[in-house]
Design a protein that fits this description.
This protein is α/β, with parallel strands linked by helices. The chain contains 17 helices and ten strands. The chain has two domains: 2-163 and 283-333, 3-Layer(aba) Sandwich (D-Maltodextrin-Binding Protein, domain 2); 165-282 and 344-367, D-Maltodextrin-Binding Protein, domain 2 (3-Layer(aba) Sandwich), CATH 3.40.190.10.
Length: 373
């Protein structure tokens, strides 16, 4: 009775022992958008059944501060079900670059300060957080059990919250389907992609590092040399901006292009499409909770929610991010299923961070000696 009373006092719509709780209207609206029945949320009550002492502590904390790469507008839409379920937890969200969302919170922690309770999109900084012993063990979150083992840290101190597929964008008015590469080797073997047809942005860890991990360093170095030998355009813009340049006809093809970024252009009817040479570079966006933070329980409740079926679906509807949840690995949650289903992948595991320094040195030596528009 005590546990149930605490949950009721918390004002949660989250599950009580022995019965299912009603869904927030915001969740029902998201399911309607995807034309999905509520049965897809089977087991949600169990996923949201966090310990009552977390709820009680979170009520006193009142706030969770987190960093990430979600656009603020999308983030605000994404967390509406969370706000409905946990009205006593205020979310203080900071969107920003890799330096803002991953590096600065770690530096503050090492100085004995907290500017975030939870960090997301930390990528290659995971190893730095681990070396600093900065992350809490979050393996006891109920919803964490639904995330495949290779998408979370062996010690329980980080976990993936969304999938990312990194392929290429191409201009449908300038590029023939027959010229699209089936394998990555086909790209660098075809002179059609030379003389500035390709635009590159400087985030090789998203796509090239996992290819090195799967196909080997020798392959990676040879491929990289051949890629730069095509005389690509070295661009300062980010991946999303490069898709815009492809759409405008300034580039025939850009590398890399994320499925989530391409979706916006598809909805606008732009003359640009997404294509995946094999194997497909695939990654998760990692999340962690800072050890000893002042809002640890509120952070745990939010992290658990976003890993739940409800949080994963909310993220897909608002941010176009494919779920990591084991039960949601379905075509309906892929933006471009014809480009992904049945193709081999190259997964960017944080284990590849051990090779990150040598990889970046090799890449940077080629990147820095090319003219930039």
């Amino acid at each position: 009775m005590k546990a149930a009373a605490l949950v009721l006092l918390a004002g949660l719509l989250a599950p009580l022992a022995g019965g299912a709780a009603p869904l927030p209207d915001s969740t029902r609206a998201m399911l309607k958008t995807l034309k999905l029945d509520e049965t897809i949320l089977a087991g949600l009550d169990q996923e949201l059944a966090v310990p009552p002492d977390w709820v009680e502590a979170a009520r006193h904390e009142g706030t969770v501060r987190l960093t990430g790469s979600w656009q603020p507008r999308r983030f605000n839409e994404m967390v509406k079900p969370f706000n409905d379920r946990y009205p006593f937890i205020k979310i203080a969200y900071t969107a920003g670059s890799y330096n803002v969302r991953a590096v600065r919170p770690l530096i503050a922690f090492q100085e004995g300060r907290y500017i975030a309770d939870m960090v997301t999109g930390v990528g290659s900084a995971v190893s730095r957080y681990e070396a600093a012993d900065a992350l809490d063990d979050i393996s006891d979150m109920p919803a964490a059990a639904a995330v495949p083992q290779d998408m979370k840290g062996k010690d329980g101190r980080w976990i993936g919250i969304r999938l990312r597929y990194w392929c290429v964008a191409y201009n449908t008015e300038h590029v023939k389907t027959a010229d699209l590469p089936k394998q990555w080797d086909d790209l660098v073997a075809n002179p059609r992609w030379g003389h500035g047809a390709i635009g590159l942005t400087n985030i090789p860890d998203t796509w090239l590092l996992p290819l090195w991990g799967k196909l080997g360093r020798d392959w990676g170095e040879h491929f990289t040399d051949r890629l730069f030998g095509l005389d690509p355009q070295i661009r300062k813009e980010g991946a999303n901006a490069l898709i815009g340049l492809v759409s405008a006809g300034e580039l025939d093809l850009s590398i890399p292009a994320g499925d989530h970024e391409m979706e916006e252009y598809r909805r606008k009817g732009a003359p640009v499409a997404w294509h995946c040479p094999q194997p497909i570079p695939t990654a998760t966006s990692e999340m962690g909770i800072l050890k000893g933070g002042p809002n640890n329980h509120a952070a745990r409740i939010f992290a658990n929610w976003i890993l739940s079926k409800e949080g994963q679906i909310a993220q897909f509807v608002t941010d176009h991010s494919p779920p990591v949840h084991r039960d949601l690995q379905l075509p309906v949650f892929l933006l471009f299923p014809d480009q992904v289903i049945g193709k081999p992948t190259a997964f960017r595991s944080p284990d590849l961070n051990a090779h990150y320094e040598a990889f970046t040195q090799f890449w940077d030596a080629r990147w820095e000696h090319r003219p930039t528009p």
